Amino acid sequence: MSSDFETYEQDFGTITAEVTNKIGKIPKLSGEEKTQLVLNVDKQLEEVRELLEQMDLEVREIPIQSRAMYTSRLKSYKQEMEKLEKDFKRSRIAYSDEVRNELLGDDAISSEGQLIKLREERAHLLDNTERLERSSRRLEAGYQIAVETEQVGQEILSNLHTDREKIQRARERLRETDSNLGKSSRILTGMLRR
User: Fold this and answer.
1) Are the C-beta atoms of residues 49 and 78 closer than 8 Å to each other?
2) Which of 78, 7, 10, 2 minimizes the C-alpha distance to 45?
């Protein structure tokens, strides 16, 4: 049974490689040639879907011990198929630069120029906005430092004022003590003379 699965895998690899190659060519073509290639790819994608269904049936018949490995392989193939279908849809509506310029003429070139100019202006505006935000952050940080410095200065002034009052009180006490010592000294001198 697993040999059937591996045969389907080989077919899957071959067809998806061809489809990928053709999907890359679609945008470069136009007219009948493009239509034919789109139909051909669509047919091959249907074959791939059928292969995936066959692989799914084979996985269900594989013993449980080996099933997990084959299930994960099948899952990755299904994801690859989804990617191919998305790429196919995109390629059907995409046009090469030459075809687009041919269809749109000089307008495409001028609109491309305008688009480039708009992108440049947008990038310039984003740069300016970023610079402005950086400057605003620096100003905010500077303001914060100024506020903190002012608070520290007020605390220092308050401490200096308190220290000045203490020094003045100590000086006043010292004068009183000096005056009292002078009186005491006179009294003692007067007592010694008697």
Assistant:
1) no
2) 78
Half-sphere exposure at residue 121, Cβ-oriented, CA atoms within 13 angstroms: 6
Over 70: is that where the pLDDT of 99 sits?
no
Number of residues that make up the chain: 194
Ranges of H-type helices in 62-194: 64-93, 97-104, 106-193
pTM: 0.48
- Give 105-151 pLDDT, tens digit per residue: 555 455 667 778 887 887 788 888 888 888 888 888 888 888 888 99
Q: Rounded to whole angstroms, how far apart are CA atoms 49 and 191?
A: 131
CA 172, CA 180: separation in Å to the nearest integer?
12
